[in-house]
Amino acid sequence: MPLVNGMTFTHEHTTIDLSGVKQNEDCNLNCFAETIEEYKKLYKQGVRNIVDVTVMGMKRNPEYVRQVAKASGINIIQATGCYTERFLPEFVEVETIEEIAERFIKEIEVGIAGSEVKAEIIGEIGSSKNHMTIKETKVFEAAVLAHKKTGKPITTHTTLGTYGHEQVEFFKARQVDLSRVVIGHVDLSGDSDYVLQLLRQGVYVEFDTIGKENYMPDQTRVDMLLAIQEAGFTDKVFLSLDITRKSNLNFRGGIGYSYLIETFIPMLREGGITEKFIQKMLIDNPQTFFNL
Asked: How far is it, in rounded angstroms, from Cα 283 to Cα 73?
């Protein structure tokens, strides 16, 4: 039972460093004290779990994350896997699918990156905008093997919300139980019908870029969730922010992790989203997904 009772943010990064590839120091999220302060605030607001989807190639630091969890009281789930093409470790090109899968399995069964912290989820594994590269496909194949060996769920990255249906077809073709899969960043599609088609297949979906209005207005996210509520598909939706930059944090003038609770939830209420659906997205649905 990896989750404890309380609210869950299902797609976050406690520390992550994509600055090398992006050539932007802002993408090195290494604000230890400031992150603890924000997580403590979340704890006071009722958040008890954070799913940290920082994987190989993102300069993970499982001990850093463990220390943040200890200091803040938040239960942080850590992950194994690889991200999208630009950020893939060199071994993905040269190793077999089975060898990559063994790396994931070892991090689940033994510990992440030589630590004693065991991964409880596979991903975020990612596809590129509107397509999946050869190396990304290898990662997805390896994730399926690791999932079938360990039973751990899979969480994905869709670039700007694209290629989600193709990801689902990939998993279906390999007989993966779709109730053990969450398709990420679907809010960036801006299309509630697109998301409803995913939900009808049986996967979970994440509205996990909340507050990133440079990508998509939050009002669009509210409207999409209202359409999902009206269609009756409220059992497999998660919420999160996907904070990855120093400038996202409060001390740099950003929205901070509490934006979801303080700003977005009131927007949902004003937009006609029921308390029951809000509770499902933040409490019940993550508990069901992780505690199977």
From this structure: 17
Among 107, 171, 103, 177, CA closest to 141: 171
CA distances from 33 to 1, 36, 230, 247 (A): 28, 5, 42, 15
> Which pair of tokens denotes residue 50?
């954070």
* SS3 category, 125: strand
Q: How far, CA to CA in Å, does 161 sit from each of 35, 104, 116?
A: 27, 25, 34
pLDDT (tens digit per residue) in 169-210: 999 999 999 999 999 999 999 999 999 999 999 999 999 999
- The pLDDT value recorded for residue 84 is 98
Angle, vertex CA 154, rays to CA 150 and CA 156, nearest 5:
155
Query: How do 28-29 and 16-17 pair as beta strands?
Result: antiparallel
d(CA 42, CA 206): 19
Task: Pick left, alpha or beta for residue 53 (phi over 0 → left; psi -120 to 50 → alpha; otherwise beta).
Answer: alpha
**Position 43 confidence tier, pLDDT thresholds 50, 70, 90:** very high
Which DSSP string do the residues of 28-70 spell out, in sequence order?
EE--HHHHHHHHHHHHHTTEEEEEE---BTS---HHHHHHHHH
Angle at alpha carbon of residue 11, lines to 7 and 12, rounded to 5°: 95
pTM of the model: 0.97
Residue 154 bridge partners (DSSP): 122, 181
> Do 41 and 73 contact (CB within 8 A), yes or no?
no
Inter-CA distances, 136 with 92, 126, 157, 192, Å: 9, 7, 11, 26
